[in-house]
Design a protein that fits this description.
The chain is an alpha+beta fold. It has helices spanning 3-34, 46-55, 104-110, 158-164, 175-178, 181-195, 259-266, 276-283, and strands at 77-80, 84-89, 94-103, 144-147, 170-173, 198-206, 212-214, 220-222, 225-232, 237-244, 256-257. The strands form 3 sheets. It has a 7-stranded antiparallel beta sheet. The protein has a two-stranded antiparallel sheet with strand order 4-5. A two-stranded antiparallel ribbon has the order 7-8. Strand 7 (212-214) and strand 8 form a beta hairpin. The chain is globular, with a radius of gyration of 24 Å.
Amino acid sequence: MKKKQKRSIYYVLAVLLLGLAGYHGYQKNAFYKSAYNDELPTEQTTEQQAHHEGKEYQSTGDLGLLDVKLPERLDNQTVRYKAITVYFNKHYRVPNCVAYELTNTMTSMADSRDAENRANYQFERDRDVKGCPDWWDYKESGYTRGHMAPAMDMRWDKTAMEECFLMTNICPQLDEMNDGEWRHVEEAVHRWSRTAERLIIFTGPIFSDDMEYIGKHGDIAVPERFFKVIYSPSQNRAIAFVMENQPIPNSWTNYATTIDKVEELTGYNFLSTLEDKVEDVIESKENIKDWPKYYPRR
């Protein structure tokens, strides 16, 4: 065979090999792009497809349980994101309440090795919500940006994490409280969701007439207290917590209370879609012993 013919064959083979390598590289890149972009079709393995379907997980439960009836006098804009519902107050520039569901499937995905990493996310302003502050409005205020729907519950989905870091989900919290007993309540709720089929969770501030204000224009309210309401439909039980926005000296379990008490403090009406008899019984109980024990690391 002549040298010229050999060189031509080698050239053709090289082009084919490069083409195959590029094709496989495209497939790999296409999958990672499509994990968060449904418009890009790709061929996926069973494992990859399961991961992608997990990102699109939707509840089959009654999302009407997330509705909160607020006092008419209270300023409010209801914003429904993918995983959380925010009742935002443009006057105080913080949410009145944030509601979401947490299923054992979501928690399993949030705790998996390929869950979203909160280090990849930053606080952002929601420009579609009037009164929403910027992240830098909290700088040098003495308060942390406290998530109402915590990031640990949203790690199952990229969009859920992005929207969790919007400032509509944030309130000023003292660091000793936010990273102390309040965090232990959040961790307990997260663990409870592993054994409960589904939890309905409400979190928010309790406003008062003499609140402190922070921000460049001094118009972001600093709540003196916060509440968390937890309802388990399948287990037919509920509990609530109220904590001061200050260092908490006692165990988180000491701050358990009833939903009735939170409704009295806020004027809100939770779980209004339940039958009145069921709602009355559930909202009047607060026995922490009905819930699995949780011993946080201190």
